[in-house]
Specification:
The protein is 10% helix and 45% strand. It is mostly beta strands. It has one domain. The chain starts with 10 loop residues before the first strand and ends with a helix.
Length: 132
C-alpha cells in the first residue's frame, strides 16, 4: 500500500493492522513552522482494507472513516497558528511539537482528493466549507 501524498510504500507498525508513511519534516507556511509529519496513517480491517485513514495534507488533516459496516464520514481540520480556544479546537502532537488544530467540518461521506496536489486539496476544502 502506498502513501497517498508521497507515493512511497507505507510501513507496518508494531500495532496490528496499522500502517504509516515514513516520518518526514515539512515546512507549513500557514503556521510558519516545520512539522514532523507521517503523511498518512491507515488502520486496516481483517480483509486488509483501510477503514480508518488519517491523511496529513498540511495544514489540513483529514480523518476518514470508511467502514461499510459502521460509519462513513470525513472530519476536516486545519492547523492554526498561535493559541485559540473553543469547542472545535484541540492540540495535536507532531513528534515533540504540540500545535492547535481547528475542526472545520464533518462531511457525511468519504472524501477522496488528489492528495499529492496541495492546491486541489485547498480548493476541495473551500468547496466543502462553502456548501456547509
Amino acid at each position: 500500500m502506498n502513501c497517498p501524498i508521497c507515493n512511497k510504500t507505507m510501513l507496518e507498525t508494531e500495532t496490528a493492522g496499522m500502517m504509516t508513511c515514513e516520518r518526514t519534516t515539512i515546512k507549513v507556511p500557514a503556521i510558519d513552522m516545520e512539522v514532523e509529519s507521517v503523511h498518512a496513517i491507515y488502520f486496516l480491517n481483517k480483509e486488509g482494507q483501510a477503514i480508518i485513514k488519517t491523511i496529513e495534507a498540511l495544514p489540513y488533516i483529514f480523518q476518514i472513516h470508511d467502514d461499510p459496516k459502521s460509519i462513513r464520514q470525513t472530519r476536516i481540520s486545519k492547523l492554526i497558528k498561535g493559541y485559540k480556544y473553543g469547542d472545535n479546537v484541540s492540540m495535536i502532537t507532531f513528534g515533540e511539537q504540540r500545535i492547535n488544530c481547528e475542526q472545520l467540518i464533518v462531511v457525511p461521506s468519504v472524501v477522496n482528493i488528489q492528495w499529492d496536489n496541495p492546491e486541489a486539496v485547498k480548493e476541495r476544502v473551500q468547496m466543502y466549507m462553502l456548501f456547509s
